[in-house]
Amino acid sequence: MASSRPKNILIGATGSVATIKLPNIIHELKLKDPSVNIRVVVTSKALQFISRDCIPAEVYQDENEWQLWKQRGDPVLHIDLAKWADIFVIAPLDANTLGKISSGMCDNLLTCVARAWDLQKPLLFCPAMNTKMYLHPITRKQIADLREFGYIEIRAISKTLMCGDTGIGGMAEYKTIADMTYAHLNNIKVEHQ
Q1: Is the pTM of this model over 0.70?
Q2: Catalytic annotation present for 163
């Protein structure tokens, strides 16, 4: 059944080299549904891997957080973004931000959106980090914490990573991310291998 309005997708990108795939993710989402609205929240570390100008969507970063707020009743960006979005997809989710979200920290715009997220709406996350970081016991615990919150993991894949190592920790393929996003937007039960 078609929705009465276009869907709103919020993408979060963190400090992983996999951030370079952000334009591909957005392109694939738009290819599947040109009417979808996409906004992107980036951490300062994500911008080490991609320029805002290369992201084909409205982009928000930490410096935007309090620009409109002057007094009580004024907009608060992380709250507004969390309300606006039908789904939040964090792709890639680096080890640092994984640790922050799993422990409840909110020291940047992206982690504030995650903390303000309505748990009745889907939040998908795509871990992306070096194999040694991914295999560290704390990573397994932190991913389990996010899953316990009700967040949906799009599992990392094995591949040759940008550092030259081969192993688990690569972000899922952008087509997989788009497919999972739409499956959860449309409330279809999916199992990701």
Answers
A1: yes
A2: yes
